[in-house]
């Protein structure tokens, strides 16, 4: 492997708990790489290992072509890390928070960098506002600016938009898109599948094991089922009926909607399915075949426990 980030047979334990179990993957320079998995899958543990925060792992980690075990101090100076609970200083202004983090990284002449970051993150008009008075979305943008103050070449983002309103989340992603144009490598975790769709590649992680790695569109194309979507009048009754049919591989609920997974080779037409389901009174309104979403693929891999 010869990527910007190379991981080979990485293993880590919290006592008797196996947090990561033989992770091998490579991330290219300038790539936005997404790590997806349920709570407890090992996502945050992996990022903390890559940042050199956690010690005592087995396997190999290389970043920027250098091994973390032998070049940890150098590597850490070139990394940016935005954790889920990034700590800003509420009584300091936006400008003062950035100044503090610049001094932590021992940057001597950072005035221009500070102004550039304020403009880049659209925080220039709030630079005199105290951090505790910022909205949730602005706090995330300030945290990102603090992460970027020392011009890292790799940025690790652990669920950076979790709990942020949709407008602020979109603005955050617009900033990330601009950041990628500078050649920075972004490695992120996210609970949002629409964000995962924006990544050049994604990896599914569950119980410390890597299930698959590929471009989102390639993962959807490999999905072995046709997906029929319907809205039943009674979700529980419809689920019970559909899960008992031998031609249906699985049924998953998405709010009021159900996604029915039928092997592609056996999938009838939508009209045939609609007539069948109308007879059983499980249609509130018409159904249709849809393209599988990344969430469909993710659920499939979780249910198969690592089928590649």
Shape: globular
Termini separation? 20 Å
| Sheet with most strands: strand arrangement | 6-7-8-3-9-10
Low-confidence stretches: none
How much of the sequence lies in strands comes to 25-35%
CATH-defined topology of the largest domain: Rossmann fold
Kindly give the count of domains.
Answer: 2
Assign the CATH superfamily of the largest domain: P-loop containing nucleotide triphosphate hydrolases
CATH class label of the largest domain: Alpha Beta
Would you tell me the overall average pLDDT? Answer: 91
CATH architecture of the largest domain: 3-Layer(aba) Sandwich
Portion of residues in helices?
A: 25-40%
Broad structural category:
alpha/beta
**How many helical elements?**
11
């Amino acid at each position: 492997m010869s990527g910007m980030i190379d991981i080979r047979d990485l293993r880590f334990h919290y006592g008797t708990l196996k947090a990561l179990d033989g992770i091998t993957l490579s991330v290219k320079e300038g790539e936005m790489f997404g790590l997806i998995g349920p709570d407890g899958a090992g996502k945050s543990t992996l990022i903390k290992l890559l940042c050199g925060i956690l010690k005592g792992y087995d396997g190999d980690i290389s970043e920027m072509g250098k091994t973390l075990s032998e070049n940890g101090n150098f590597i850490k100076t070139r990394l940016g890390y935005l954790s889920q609970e990034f700590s800003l200083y509420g009584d300091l202004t936006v400008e003062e928070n950035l100044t503090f983090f610049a001094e932590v990284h021992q940057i001597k002449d950072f005035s221009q960098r500070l102004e550039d970051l304020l403009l880049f993150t659209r925080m220039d008009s709030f630079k005199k506002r105290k951090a505790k008075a910022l909205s949730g979305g602005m706090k995330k943008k300030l945290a990102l600016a603090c992460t970027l103050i020392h011009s890292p070449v790799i940025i690790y983002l652990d669920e950076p938009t979790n709990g942020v309103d949709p407008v602020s989340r979109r603005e955050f992603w617009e900033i990330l898109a601009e950041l990628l144009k500078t050649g920075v490598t972004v490695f992120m975790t996210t609970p949002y599948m629409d964000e995962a769709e924006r990544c050049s590649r994604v990896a599914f992680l569950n119980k410390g094991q890597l299930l698959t790695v590929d471009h989102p569109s390639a993962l959807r194309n490999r999905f072995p089922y046709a997906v029929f979507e319907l809205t039943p009048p009674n979700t529980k009754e419809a689920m019970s009926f559909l899960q008992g049919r031998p031609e249906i591989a699985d049924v998953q609920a998405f709010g009021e909607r159900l996604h029915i997974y039928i092997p592609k080779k056996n999938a009838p037409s939508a009209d045939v399915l609609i007539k069948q389901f109308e007879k059983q009174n499980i249609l509130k309104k018409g159904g249709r075949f849809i393209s599988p979403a990344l969430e469909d693929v993710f659920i499939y891999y979780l249910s198969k426990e690592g089928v590649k």
